[in-house]
Specification:
There is one protein chain. Helix content is 18%, strand content 44%. Strands 1, 2, 3, 4, 5, 6, 7, 8, 9, 10, 11 and 12 form a twelve-stranded antiparallel sheet that branches. It is built from three helices and twelve strands, in the order E-E-H-E-E-E-H-E-H-E-E-E-E-E-E. A hairpin with a 2-residue loop joins strand 9 and strand 10.
């Protein structure tokens, strides 16, 4: 299923301005929410001033002959938290989180989220990939995606670049010309 990109929800706005994996005792956690609670959790986290990232996309569909648009999480049931122990406890107190997953490599998750955010901000059609297949790792050489790293996949004779959230074993893919890619050794 392809999505047209709409907006992302991030708090604070400068969350990705060089904070990296750990700042001031904070570290990355992945919150697995209760069913359809991602946006409500985001509202609660903003009220509590707890840093998080919830990538949202605009989904277009037809229902009873009417064209509708809705905002949906790019990765259903997942919200990425950047918290200290107190803030994590406050987020659990919202009663919207089923459980949290510790992130063993916070820097890797941060780097993956930065790349996902860049792709979302480019406002190009993305496809959510549930399980990543092994393939050639590449880096985009030039263009608006310059520097983004991912895995090359071929689907219906078209080249797709998959950018992963390694920790979740999920990712998104975008169609790209293979001449824009350099292999990573």
């Amino acid at each position: 299923m392809s999505y047209v990109i709409s907006a992302t929800t991030v708090f604070p706005d400068d969350l990705f301005d060089g904070c990296g994996a750990q700042v001031g005792g904070r570290e990355w956690w992945v919150a697995y929410t209760k069913v359809r609670q991602e946006k409500r959790l985001a509202e609660d986290l903003v009220q509590r001033e707890i840093p998080f990232y919830l990538p949202l996309v605009e989904r277009r569909h037809v229902y009873r002959g009417r064209r509708l648009r809705s905002q949906e999480p790019l990765f259903g049931s997942y919200v990425f938290l950047f918290t200290d122990a107190r803030e994590r406890a406050q987020s659990l107190a919202t009663n919207r989180i089923a459980h949290t997953l510790p992130v063993p490599d916070g820097q890797q998750l941060y780097d993956d989220l930065v790349q996902i955010r860049r792709l979302i901000e480019a406002e190009v059609p993305l496809t959510v990939e549930a399980r990543l297949q092994p393939g050639q790792r590449v880096r985009v050489r030039h263009g608006c995606f310059a520097g983004i790293e991912g895995i090359v996949e071929s689907r219906c004779r078209r080249t797709r670049l998959t950018v992963a959230i390694t920790f979740l074993q999920r990712g998104i893919s975008v169609e790209i010309d293979d001449v824009m890619l350099d292999p990573i050794s």
